[in-house]
Amino acid sequence: MKNIINKGSALAFILMLACSVSCSDSYLEEKPMDKFSPENLLTSKAGFETVIVSLHSYARDEANLSTNDEPMNQGTDVGYSGVPDGRFFNDYSIILPEHAAPKNMWDWAYTKMLKNANLIISRADNPDIAWTEEEKNEILAEAKFFRGYTYNALINLFGGVPIVDREESSPRFDYKRASRKEVLEFIQSDLEFASTYLPIVSSDASKDGRIFRAAANHLLSEIYISLGLETGDQNFFDKSISAASKVINGDCGKYELVSKRFGDTSRSGDYYSDLFWTNQQNRASGNLEGIWVMQYDYLTPGAGDKKNIDLRLWGPSLDFVTFPDGKKMLVCDSLGRMSGGIVRPTNHANYEIWSDPNDVRHSVHNFKSRFWMNNPDSEYFGMEVVLTKKEDGKMYITLPDGSVTNSVVDTTRNFYPYFRKIEGLMPWGNMEGRTMNDRYKMRLSETYLLRAEAYLHKGDRVNAAADINVVRKRAQASPVDPADVNIDYVLDERMRELIIEEPRRRTLVRLHKMYERTMKYNYRVKNNMQPYHELWPIPQKAIDANTAIKIEQNPGYPGAAE
């Protein structure tokens, strides 16, 4: 059912200019012979669809740019890394223009996403292509959606960046940074086109994972908020409300919040946990909440080694917990092998925001905070893991009679509560620690929170609270009073609802809250983060390659203007 997204994944790596050269009596003429060269491939709707599939594949790569890194959440108010050194955004002083995270993201954007989106957009004007105007506009709309999505990621990591709006046929060395406002306006144009020409959501299960009109309006709602904050023009907040309302009110097709159990109801859980279990993210499962869902197919031809790695990134290494008899806990089917706090939730995320005991998002089915010794060879088999802090500040295993042992447990890497969104089926074996769960990029609950944010920026706390309370009511949490709604409350609600799913760094940057909230809630960075770290450095390789015009480095980093 998801083959349309995955069959072409392998093609993404050979969609490059490939040609052979033949000779005539008077000159050499390049004639592209490879069937996957743009000249031969982009002559029909099917050819353009192949490049669209490559965009889906590259978009899925964003979550896996590094198998042991999650820079959208590390070093924020949501999480830090449990490693004892400064890696993984525990130390912002080492985030320099040569750092891997900025380089990986920059290359992903410019050499993959934007390159292929611009290839489609530039070549679609060929009058010899046999397609209808509707087919052409749908292809253009999906390409422009991906281009807008990519630039939105870039501006919320680097600030203003060079705008590349067409296929480049020869090397260029004169790119210059556009302002944040200019990039936002460019994204606005792309997404307004996409919101007009993308199709209404389909009930056809084979189209799960495709981009529909609701996704463009959802992202437009965010872009309009950014434009309103950037320009001070309040009209953008009204546009944001309108774009979100088109999704919420059904103008883009039927979407609704899940409020009752569905899918595999034989497993222990509740309706919220059902949202995240394997094979239950798409409309084919009866879930009408997902707006854009990344597809991960097990054993699908062309899918390659793409797997959902959230379990390894966010989970503790419970199998490193050692009891007084020397026996360790075991990796088991329900937990899998985790990588030890690559993203360890902050205390704010795990505890401080959960004041309502009835909130199902923090129930035992969605938040795991109690663990038992599961190794049958241990004399402590079946005993709950209880810890006590001694005077040295370390945590020690405590026996049922209250006696504290000498067995130390690392609570930043090996033992801490975690959100169970990361759990799922592991067909490769539980030691692999990766699931086949499809991954939400956009859900309807976030659309409500975006609209609430737009209302709040207008000063309308009543309607902001009303939208937040739709999300809270579904979670069986008590409603928020309009007087208590501010941007920090919205960010906390986004954390409750969207943790792990949300690229938190980009959310905080677009709201100018990255430094403030990270310093407040992330103890690992208090001594090394500076206000300029809100933005990443422009990769040095991009600056060095642009020899005709100097690309200005972001303030605070080596090479920046004084």
Concise summary:
With 562 residues, the chain is mainly α.
Describe the structure in your own words.
- α5 (133-158) packs across α15 (504-510).
- The protein is built from 17 helices and eleven strands.
- Among the domains are: 307-428, no CATH class; 446-536, no CATH class.
- The longest helix has 26 residues, at 133-158.
- It has 562 residues and is mostly helical.
- The strands form five sheets. Strands 7-8-9 form a three-stranded antiparallel β-sheet, with no helix packed on it. The chain has a two-stranded antiparallel ribbon with strand order 1-2. It has a two-stranded antiparallel sheet with strand order 3-5.
- The protein has helices at residues 3-6, 38-41, 45-61, 100-123, 133-158, 180-197, 213-231, 235-248, 271-274, 310-314, 347-352, 444-458, 461-474, 487-498, 504-510, 514-521, 540-545; strands at 20-23, 28-31, 79-80, 290-294, 344-345, 367-368, 387-389, 395-398, 404-409, 418-419, 439-443.
- Helices cover 36% and strands 7% of the residues.
- This is RagB/SusD family nutrient uptake outer membrane protein.
- Keywords: Cell outer membrane, Membrane, Signal.
